[in-house]
Amino acid sequence: MQKKQRIPKNIKEQRTKKAKGASAYDEALYFLTPKARTVREVENRLDECNYSEGEIMAAIDKLRNNGLLNDEKFARDFVESRLNTKPVSRGKLRRQLREHFVENAVETELSNAAAVGNKYFRQYSNLPLKERLRRTGSRLVSCGYAFDDVKTVLSELAENSEEAGNSDEIYDEIEFSLRSAENGADDEE
After folding, report:
1. How far apart are alpha carbons 72 and 147 in whole angstroms?
2. At 186, is the secondary structure helix, strand, or coil?
3. Do 156 and 105 meet the contact criterion of CB atoms below 8 Å apart?
4. Where residue 42 falls among pLDDT bands split at 50, 70, 90?
5. How buried is residue 122: exposed, middle or buried, by Cβ count under 10 Å (0-12/13-18/19+)?
6. pTM for the full model?
7. 20 to 30 A from 7, CA-CA: which of 51, 119, 169, 175?
């Protein structure tokens, strides 16, 4: 009995869908099946499969028209996924998006800061409001968010909190939280 031979990866890649008569659009659909991709990633894949420029552009246009390829949606979903799993700084997010060939991603700093702030605020739910705000603000500042964005997020969190007292107390707590974060008081660990 013969042993089953493994085909090296580079030879597998050479045996593309095109060799089997598949169109560029079919190859792009096959490439998009496991996860979302950017336009540039799909273009690069089709180029590797030796499709002509015309075939590639026709496939990209068809994918866009069918709503299967959208760089802005990819960027939003990518950022949301990263913020939900492990929050990172704006700079690191931008670098990761550039790795996916998304240069001009639609990324609103405030909504990102709000998503990260909500996550941390929930993590500190067993603490008093003032301490929750301080720690959340400190974490947001350490992630690289601007103080104005942090202040806005902390205001929203404080106003929506069940513990919220009058607005003067809330703003005093926010100012305290920001001063603490600015001074590097990050000893929650």
Report:
1. 26
2. coil
3. no
4. very high
5. exposed
6. 0.50
7. 51
